[in-house]
Specification:
The structure holds 2 protein chains of 2 kinds. By secondary structure, chain A is mostly helical. Chain A is built from 13 helices and no strands. The longest helix of chain A is centred in the C-terminal third of the chain and has 39 residues. By secondary structure, chain B is mainly alpha-helical. Chain B contains 13 helices and no strands. In chain B, α2 packs across α3 and α8 packs across α9. Chain B is flat. Chain B starts with 7 loop residues before the first helix and ends with a helix. Classes of the chains: A mainly alpha, B mainly alpha. The interface between A and B is large, with 59 and 57 residues.
Chain lengths: 329, 320
């Protein structure tokens, strides 16, 4: 139990740090985001004093109120779920924009990361089990794929499959002409069809890392005495591989899975921009291009919170699959 | 019956000709390391010397989008700029960013990782908490947010922002390793014999960390170059700089993809990929020092481990 509380405590601190960072970022930066934002909003429609006040709380620059008071107001506003109004998608509130775009990113990034993890760990198990086999010799070349930037791989795949062979669509999340969002076969099929290429990009560029990590851990684990014991007992090799070696070797990969989520979300921002995927990354970019600071801060907060949440989830899962973490605490 | 694959006499000769085993401070020159080093040196040389030899990368000509020719080795952009000249300048820009971020990351991560773990107690707790918090805050979105506030960015600022958002991972790795070194007997012994903390840190502990530090720096350089490329590709890079990322940004905006101008967007990406791959190859070699178990166990080497027919016969005779 103590371990659990420690973990929860850490995530509370991290949450506080994220919120505070989000509060201070616009206040530290040069320029006056509030004025830029309000003047942009004024072009679209009337700005009420209440709206202006809300923006000031989010982005600062209200010099009449002391900083600590602004901070408390800001926290209250965040916990009410009020992140202001978006300029880029005027007059939709920021929360709604995030609500519409987040499922796309979570679906795309979550699924493709999971696929990549499963394939990578699976291949890594066999590569470590049979060192020097053809699978093992694949490891370096697959790891090299990792140094290929996401977005460039996306560009090349798009060029080949979109322009040259025209197998997959060039951009978008689904066919906006023939289908409409909803739980219909047409729509889901369209989403899968449009999502294949972005997902493929993420899988190709990340599978090598999982494979290498798992392979190296397998090699280390196979040198342990209990593997020798298991072999001496005459257990079937497949059982030793799966239950004795792989189960122990996969633990660091699971821990790495949490950390990698942050990188993957970051990478997906760029990938989404290449594919014009209607996810949160595209929304972040359009907010940057439109100087839509409220939306930008909101999205940064949500991305940070999702990464935190995913990390917490993996940490809790880790206590289940690795009893040592519970015993040590 | 198959014949023995190895001639014992030859093997013995090979063993004699090998130099006496020295203490391994440098990684063994494996093909992987050789290829990695060669590519790195070639690309770094291209970045250092190339810009001096080519013409102006921004010069506009009225021959837009021409494929590679004898005059323009990599063709021209849509406004007739020489892609090869741009590539030379971009290589210099990207490598510079990588170098600066690598150094900054090294300083930050060794400060928070090594010093924290060595000091122990509350310092360690605080440093470790700070590191872990920095680790879960996603880097690139933070960089995007920061760089969207600042409209005029110098290369240095981009490098500093990238370093601030990327040191945490390697600090954690370093901390773990320092903790294990710190508790080794010989460190305790030198503590008891009255060595100063500073000396223990620099003379007893740091040399053990060198391979790990080296591999972390190589990683940092890869991440920095990729991160900068991503940032520039989104149009958020340093103002007026030439990097592989800005080339890709202009290629994407110049519709190089739709027009099939592969000579514009393939070279910078390929440079990124090849350079990253070369650094990864170097890292493989460094990894094999940190963890000798990871050294290549290829089929060729395994065959050498087996006993030759002659040895087998001898051992059987001994048993009988």
């Amino acid at each position: 139990m103590r371990f659990l509380w420690q973990k929860l405590g850490f995530y509370l601190v991290a949450l506080w740090a994220a919120l505070t960072l989000n509060f201070f970022l616009p206040r530290w930066m040069p320029g006056n985001p509030v004025d830029i934002l309000v003047s942009k909003l004024a072009q679209r429609g009337e700005v009420t004093p209440a709206t202006r006040h809300a923006i000031e709380l989010l982005l600062g620059m209200d010099s009449s109120v002391p900083l600590w008071h602004q901070y408390i107001d800001y926290l209250q506003q965040i916990f009410r779920g009020d992140l202001g109004v978006s300029v880029a998608y005027f007059p939709t509130p920021v929360v709604d924009v995030i609500g519409q775009t987040l499922p796309w990113t979570v679906g795309l990034v979550g699924l493709s990361t999971l696929i990549s993890f499963v394939i990578g760990v699976g291949l890594g198990t066999f590569a470590g089990w049979k060192r020097g086999s053809w699978i093992d010799n694949m490891v370096p070349s697959l790891t090299l794929l990792q140094s290929v930037p996401y977005f460039w791989l996306a560009l090349v795949l798009l060029f080949l499959f979109g322009s040259v062979w025209q197998v997959f669509p060039l951009n978008g999340g689904y066919d906006i002409y023939t289908t409409s969002p909803g739980w219909t076969w047409d729509f889901v099929g369209s989403v899968i069809y449009y999502g294949t290429l972005p997902a493929l990009t993420i899988v190709i560029s990340s599978v090598g890392g999982w494979m290498l990590g798992m392979r190296n851990m397998m090699v280390s684990t196979l040198a342990e005495d209990y593997i020798l014991t298991a072999e001496a007992k005459g257990l079937r090799p497949s059982r030793i591989r799966a239950v004795y070696a792989a189960r122990n070797a996969v633990l660091p990969s699971v821990a790495g899975f949490a950390i990698s989520l942050g990188f993957v979300v970051a990478g997906s921002v760029v990938t989404e921009s290449v594919f014009s995927y209607p996810g949160i990354g595209s929304a972040l970019l359009s907010s940057v291009n439109n100087a839509d600071y409220a939306l930008m801060q909101g999205i940064f907060l949500v991305i940070t919170l999702s990464v935190l949440g995913a990390n917490l989830l993996v940490d809790l899962l880790y206590t289940v699959i690795d009893p040592r973490t519970r015993a040590r605490a | 019956m198959s014949t023995a694959t190895q001639d014992p006499a030859l093997a013995a000769a090979a063993a004699r000709s090998q130099p006496r085993r020295r203490r391994r401070t440098l990684p063994p020159m494996t093909p992987k390391l050789a290829v990695g080093l060669a590519i790195t040196i070639v690309i770094a040389g291209f970045g250092a010397v190339g810009p001096l030899l080519v013409g102006s990368p921004s010069e506009v000509r009225n021959i837009g989008m021409t494929p590679p020719s004898a005059e323009f080795w990599l063709g021209t952009t849509q406004t007739g700029q020489d892609v090869f000249a741009q590539l030379a300048h971009a290589t210099r820009g990207s490598l510079l960013i990588g170098l600066v971020v690598g150094i900054l990351t090294l300083l930050l991560s060794s400060f928070f990782g090594v010093v924290g773990a060595f000091a122990g107690g509350w310092t360690d707790e605080a440093f470790s908490l700070f590191t872990n918090v920095m680790l879960v805050i996603p880097g690139l979105p933070l960089v995007i947010v920061i760089s969207s506030y600042v409209t005029e960015k110098s290369v240095w600022m981009v490098a500093v922002v990238l370093a601030i958002t990327s040191w945490a991972g390697s600090a954690r790795v370093l901390r773990g390793f320092t903790l294990s070194v710190r508790n080794r007997d010989y460190v305790l012994a030198s503590r008891v014999s009255g060595e100063s903390s500073w000396r223990i840190l620099t003379v007893e502990i740091l040399p053990n960390l060198v391979p790990l530090l080296a591999s972390q720096v190589v990683f940092a350089v890869i991440f920095a170059i990729l991160g900068e490329a991503g940032l520039s590709f989104l149009g958020l890079g340093a103002t007026g700089s030439f990097t592989w990322g800005t080339m890709l940004y202009y290629a994407q905006n110049g519709l190089a993809l739709r027009l099939g101008a592969w000579w514009w967007f393939v070279p910078p990406g390929l440079m990124l990929a090849v350079f990253g791959a070369a650094l990864a190859l170097i890292n493989f070699a460094i990894d094999s020092i940190i963890n000798p178990k990871l050294r290549d166990g290829t089929r060729e080497q395994r065959k050498r481990w087996r006993m030759t027919k002659e040895q087998l016969r001898e051992s059987e005779e001994e048993v009988v």
